[in-house]
Design brief:
Aminoglycoside 3'-phosphotransferase, Chain: A, domain 2; 2 domains; two-stranded antiparallel ribbon; 17% strand; alpha+beta; six-stranded mixed sheet; Phosphorylase Kinase, domain 1; 10 strands; 51% helix
Length: 348
């Protein structure tokens, strides 16, 4: 019996947690015997850290609520896809899953990896190098894997389809908003500016897609959200990747661009060369920096477009202030964009 679980989320509204305390109590009792919940922390939306006292020792677990389809994707990564290439220990430390009564969401229970994320060690050359080598190994093992259709079906397609569809959908929603501005006298000037910016990118799309198809690397399983905060390097130097919510199939450059763009410009070429060394000679002949600049830029622009679609829809539906603020934030990302490898641009 675990005391205190009846008070889980008592201080905040969490409809998806209905009945969670009883099921979590059963899981904890089966695996750890008796004890009590001594603390709960909200890490971010729908993610919590729970502290338990169990026979004088403290155990912490991570509790995360996911949409059903995303929960299924994470389970496939943890229990099927990574084990298929001998990387079972490199995935999220998933202990069990608990469905919600309405069937719409799933709670995942993970072991807590502590304060070992790469985001907290960005000055550690050793940990960064270990991460880059692991990413290269992970990508290489999944090239031409028989599960590729599964990655695409249960994850997504993060290649040229991702780029083209997000840019087109962004233009569609922004064009709808501009028409409504004329009929409802709204003054959403950011909408006009974003539409103009993405329209220019669309004009360049044939060239961009051609380069992506030719040079962005072989298809593999992609993590889909390779930020340093999703990489953990444990004391025994084992690397783990968590939060596979956006996993899918696509070219290596998609993941590599996400990861490398989180670092200062002066460090990026060094990371590319380290990755190049790690995959040579079997996986991908990384193209010149001039082409990498365009490839990384195209993927990042597509991610920006993806993130503006939903607030644009919300703005069209309700005129919500938060939606307008998010569009303004996306515009700031575009305005702040700089060449990825400025010092290594090939001469014109």
């Amino acid at each position: 019996m675990i005391e205190g679980l009846d008070l889980l989320f008592a201080d905040e509204s969490q409809p998806s947690a209905l009945g969670l305390g009883n099921r979590l109590n059963q899981f904890m009792s089966d695996h750890h015997g008796s004890g009590r919940l001594i603390k709960q922390e909200r890490i971010k939306s729908q993610v919590y850290r729970l502290h338990f006292e169990l026979e004088g020792q403290v155990l912490t677990l991570i509790l995360k609520c996911l949409e059903g389809r995303i929960a299924h994707r994470n389970e496939l990564v943890s229990r099927r896809w990574l084990p298929a290439v001998g990387l079972a220990k490199a995935g999220p430390p998933l202990l069990t899953t608990l469905g919600t009564p309405d069937g719409q969401s799933v709670w995942h229970i993970y072991s807590d990896l502590g304060s070992n994320s790469l985001a907290e060690a960005m000055d550690s050359k050793q940990k960064i190098e270990a991460t880059v080598r692991f990413i290269a190994e992970f990508h290489e093992r999944f090239i031409d894997h028989p599960y590729m259709a599964e990655f695409r079906l249960f994850g997504g397609d993060l290649g040229t389809h991702f780029v083209e569809s997000n840019l087109r959908d962004a233009i569609l929603t922004l064009e709808t908003l501009t028409k409504d501005q004329k009929t409802e006298a709204n003054n959403w000037t950011v909408v006009d500016r974003l539409l103009e910016r993405i329209s220019v990118i669309m004009e360049e799309l044939p060239t961009r897609l051609k380069i992506l198809k030719e040079l962005s690397g072989p298809e593999t399983l992609l993590h889909g959200d390779l930020w340093p905060s999703n990489v953990f390097i444990l004391p025994d130097r084992q690397v783990k990747l968590i939060d596979w919510d956006r996993a899918g199939a696509g070219p290596i450059a998609y993941d590599l661009s996400t990861f490398i763009l989180r670092f200062p410009p002066q460090k990026r070429a060094e990371l590319v060369e380290l990755y190049r060394e790690a995959v040579y000679p079997t996986a991908w002949e990384i193209p010149p920096y001039k082409d990498l600049n365009l490839i990384f830029e195209t993927f990042e622009y597509a991610r920006y477009a993806c993130l503006l679609i939903w607030p644009a829809i919300a703005l069209w539906e309700s005129g919500a202030d938060w939606a307008l603020e998010q569009l303004e934030e996306v515009e700031r990302w575009f305005e702040a964009w700089e060449v990825v490898f400025p010092a290594l641009e090939d001469p014109a």
